[in-house]
Amino acid sequence: MPLRVNIRHLTRQNVRLEGELSAAELGLETRDEMVQARQPLQYDLEAQLLEDSLLVRGTLCLMLDCECVRCLKPFQYRLELDDWADQLPLEGDDKVPVVDDSVDLTTILREDILLAFPAHPVCDSRCAGLIGTKPGVPSNKESRPAESRPSAWTELDKLKLRN
Question: Please, what's the largest Cα pairwise distance for the chain?
Answer without folding.
Answer: 90
